[in-house]
Amino acid sequence: MGKKRVNEVSTTEGAPAEKKKKVEKWLNTSSEDGEGTKKKKRPWRNKVRKLAAKKAAAERRVENSEESTILEPVATAEEATKKKKKRGPKKKKYKPEAAEVEKKNEEGDTVKENPIAEAKKRLDAGRFRMLNEKLYTCTGSEAFDFFKEDRTAFDLYHRGFADQVKKWPNHPLREIIRWLQAKPDKQAVFDLGCGEAKIAEAVGEKHTIRSFDLVAVNDRVESCDMSKLPAEDGSADVVIFCLSLMGTNLYDFIKEARRVLRTGGVLKIGEVTSRFVSIKQFCEAINKMGFETTNRRQLTDYFMMFDFRKIDKVEQKRPYGLKLKPCLYKKR
Ligand code: SAH
Asked: What domains, with CATH codes, occur in the chain?
């Protein structure tokens, strides 16, 4: 359409003044085109309005800044930076109660947790797992020397063990205590690797109990390595290892248990089922060391209980098959 008009304009050649007038007229009124329906095209109009708005805004800014100068005296450079610093993000004050965060527990209930206490718990749990592994991978005398140097490590180990026990549905210790409670005659009982000496606590009045462990956590406990007991030959009627066959020198522990037992005395072992490489070979090995098996049973899915009786004959001092795997705890 535009093209056509240009063409039309070009037909007015030869009359420049007229032509100029016509062109101007057309440019000004072209959009009306005689019909007056279309709006005028003014491409410069918006530009002009934008410029005017900018100018007005700039003027307003100047006015405002003059106002603020009157209200607040202009700060020196030093004061300005000080002010800026003050305006920076406020440091949060440490509040112990604020350290608590809400979390969902395994049951989906909302519980409050303290992240610092939680981190400490995780560190202690890691240390417990490390100490537990150490006990399964060194000899009894090495463990004894280690804890003699570091008593706090032993306390941490015992706290960790007690935490684990709380999660178990049962404990072979209960079975042993029941068995001792049912014994009519007073027995001389040695609890080797006794921990907190729970057996002495439970049946200490009925029987004569001696409780041995690497470190004495209370007055009932005698501190020693159970491969070197401070006790006479044949002085015990019953020797108990409840979850305590931990060192790598199992032969020494069994040999020492036999030394302190009287002939006919009972060796009782409560252990974690998953530790056994072969239960049959384990029993055969103990038999060869001068015992006979009188009872052997699965207590629960987790624990086995064995009763042996001391006999006179020792077939082999270090028979094949006396092996137990370490009992390691999973990271949670
Ligand atoms: N008998 C207790 C504790 C079991 S934990 C109970 O059933 O609850 C194992 C215990 O054996 C630990 O207290 C550990 O210190 C102890 N122990 C491991 N090796 C030992 C050793 N060579 N001499 C003495 N105690 C030992």
From this structure: 131-310 (3.40.50.150)
